[in-house]
Amino acid sequence: MERILVVDDDKHIARLVRSYLEKAGYSVFVAYDGESALHVLRREKPDLVVLDLMLPDRDGWDITRLIRSDEHLAATPIIILTARVEDTDKIVGLEIGADDYITKPFNPREVVARVRALLRRSQLDRGTTTPQTFQVDDLKLDLGSREFQVNEEFVELTLSEFEILHVLMESPGFVFTRDELMDKALGYAFEGMGRTLDSHIKNLRRKIEPDPKKPTYIQTIYGVGYRIGGKRT
């Protein structure tokens, strides 16, 4: 049974999310502050964390940084659950290592679907046995080692960022609609969730583009979606 840690200082929200996840077959731990969350993380090593940003002691950004810097926890998928809807907050969360975010108010069934999709991708990654490398111009993505390079320099990516590039680099020049890219890379394509994908794309451009304001690798095809520029080698 996969184990989920839910961290939220609003006990009603924490219990609601816990109830829906348990009904979906998951074992759930709950923490109401950052210190308790870190204690559970280190003791139980859950398979995924659903994390509120605004906590009474350590905030969700701090918890995310600590998880990503701990070699025993670094691979743990993180979904941020937050009332902060500003794009800058979302991008910062993704930039420091979160895999996904959901804004409040939310549908608990959507939380379950996002958890299921992220865990499924995590399991597929761990089960990858056939090394496969994709290279498009100066971009190189290695499925076997889960490494990504730009001009032979390694770039740290979250699970979601890696999967988005994987889908794009498999088919250079092909234009994916936002729904297609979300479904193939993230495992879901809910109505209105295009903003999540757009935030991942913005964050990826900051990491890999020489000039994020004038992207050459990840190109926007207005009214349609995204494609990766260049030729596969």
User: Which overall shape is indicated by the principal axes computed on the Cα atoms?
Assistant: globular
Report the helical percentage: 40-55%
Task: Enumerate how many helices there are, as a single number.
Answer: 8
Write down the overall mean pLDDT.
Answer: 86
Reported for the largest beta sheet, the result is:
5 strands, parallel
**What spatial order of strands do you see in the largest sheet?**
2-1-3-4-5
Describe this structure in words.
With 233 residues, this protein is α/β, with parallel strands linked by helices. Helices cover 42% and strands 21% of the residues. It contains eight helices and twelve strands. It has helices at 11-23, 34-44, 60-69, 87-95, 108-126, 159-170, 178-186, 194-208, and strands at 3-7, 27-31, 48-52, 78-82, 100-103, 133-136, 139-142, 147-150, 153-154, 176-177, 218-221, 225-228. The protein has a five-stranded parallel sheet with strand order 2-1-3-4-5, sandwiched between helices. Helix 4 crosses helix 8 and helix 6 packs across helix 7 (178-186).
Short description:
The chain is an alpha/beta fold. It contains 8 helices and 12 strands. It is 42% helix and 21% strand.
